[in-house]
Amino acid sequence: MSLAFTIAPADERTLAAGAYLLGVLELALIVGAFAYAAWRVRALALASWSGAPARLVESVLGLAGLVWLSEALGSVGAFGEATVLVGSLLVAGAAFAVCGRLERDRDPGAPAPPPP
To answer: How far is residue 19's CA from residue 23's CA, in Å, rounded to a whole number?
Structure first.
């Protein structure tokens, strides 16, 4: 009888506290980077949106960015913990630089968003 997978011994399935905390930190950095990038892009593209619709757009943008980054890294065989972390920080940095530059170049006489 052949199993499709084998189960690792119990000592190899445990996760030390340090490794767990490192994983939580990595996850927080990745999610935070994409959340920031999505917020900047949404604020630039849809400045008058607020509340639930704005958060929905930011959620979709953040998840799409993570999927696109993962697909791009996977297509060149570079998908891994470190590359996703570095890539997400690069995405946040690019959003900071590009959106900041575009916001400075924006016409200051643009109409204010309508009141809710």
So the answer is: 6
Mean pLDDT per 10-residue run, the chain (116 residues)?
A: 69 84 96 96 91 96 97 96 96 93 72 64
Q: At what angle do helices 51-75 and 81-105 cross, to 10 degrees?
A: 130
Nearest CA among 74, 99, 105 for reference residue 87: 74
- Report the helix count and the strand count for the chain, using DSSP H and E: 4, 0
Question: 54 with 44: CB under 8 angstroms?
Answer: no
DSSP code for 5: S
Is 30:66 a contact under the CB 8 Å cutoff?
A: yes
Rg of the chain on CA atoms, in Å = 20
Dist CA 98 CA 95 (whole Å)? 5
- Residue found under tokens 């990038």: 37
- Kindly report the pTM of this predicted structure: 0.79
